Amino acid sequence: MPELPEVETTRRGIEPHLLNQQVERVVVRNARLRWPIPDDLDVRLSGQRFTKIERRAKYLLLHAEVGTLICHLGMSGSLRLVPHNEPIAKHDHVDIELASGQMLRYTDPRRFGAMLWTTELAAHPLLLKLGPEPLSDDFTADYLHARLQGRKQAIKPFIMDNAVVVGVGNIYANEALFAAGLEPRKAAGTLSKKHCVLLVDEIKRILAAAIEQGGTTLKDFVGGDGKPGYFQQKLFVYGRAGQPCLKCGTELKEVKLGQRSSVYCTKCQR
DNA sequence: AAATATACCTGACTGC
DNA sequence: TGCAGTCAGGTATATT
Questions:
Q1: Cα-Cα end-to-end distance for chain A
Q2: pTM over 0.90
């Protein structure tokens, strides 16, 4: 379940193997992802070199000389580099064969991911409505406070809204709210500026720590399974419903918010 | 306009 | 052992 830290780790892992590499061929074995992979992807991409590997939200943007490959790992996707003769496993849907003798392989059991092609990235509808990057200077307490004015929605789904801030998935939303001492159901519009300072700081801190830990698994992107895996970050609340709060010992409670499980401490979070 | 529900998919797990 | 059922989760899209 790649969250933003896993996607960023993937970007850093594949980038050195892709830059200036020419694509020889693209093999699509199963085009049925969240949206169909374009039929002509092979024609569009073959012969081009990759010039830059970016991340925006949880989208990986593989810039080529003319056009950009937009990749999303969905829930279960991964990208890794393997030799051209690597055996094909069940969910290996796409291979991007490079002149280096390696290929970028996309694997995705649940097929929630995406692989699209665009020559007009700035105008792409998937990227148009995205809020600021959580780790950028654009994501501040002032910004969050301004955005949540008048909003009655619970704060947890609010910070998981990509139009507000990108890349805060369920795990990190739960953890950040715990760290900030905020109850997940608290109406967004009732947060004070101080609450926003706390929450923004914790989102940044937790995401940054996870990315830092991901750096230790970069070697896995070549030849290995390519999965950064679960960062060994300590989870205080996610997946711990019914267990004692690690700060105060109170039994952690679970509620559903927007169909998403939310775990919190009734004593530490108000 | 804002809030909420739905669809997509399959591995892992639970209960019979 | 196997089968049916449930859950998880990102996010675009539909519905209220």
A1: 29
A2: yes
Q: Are A139 and A30 in contact, with CB atoms under 8 Å apart?
A: no
pLDDT tens by residue, A119-177 = 999 888 889 889 999 999 999 999 999 999 999 999 999 999 999 999 898 989 999 99
- Which positions on strand C lie below 7 Å from a protein C-beta? 7-13
CA of A102 to C1' of B6 (A): 40
Q: What b/e sequence results for A77-111 when a residue is b if at least 16 CB atoms lie within 10 Å of its CB, and e otherwise? A: bbbbbbeeeeeeeebbbbbbbbeeebbbbbbbeeb
Interatomic distance A176 CA / B3 C1' (Å): 23
Q: Which residue do the tokens 């004692």 mark?
A: A244
A261 touches strand C (CB under 7 A): yes
The amino acid present at A204, given as its one-letter code, is: K
C-beta neighbour count of A212 within 10 angstroms: 13
Q: Cα–Cα distances in Å, from A31 out to A57, A85, A266?
A: 23, 21, 46
N residues, chain A: 270
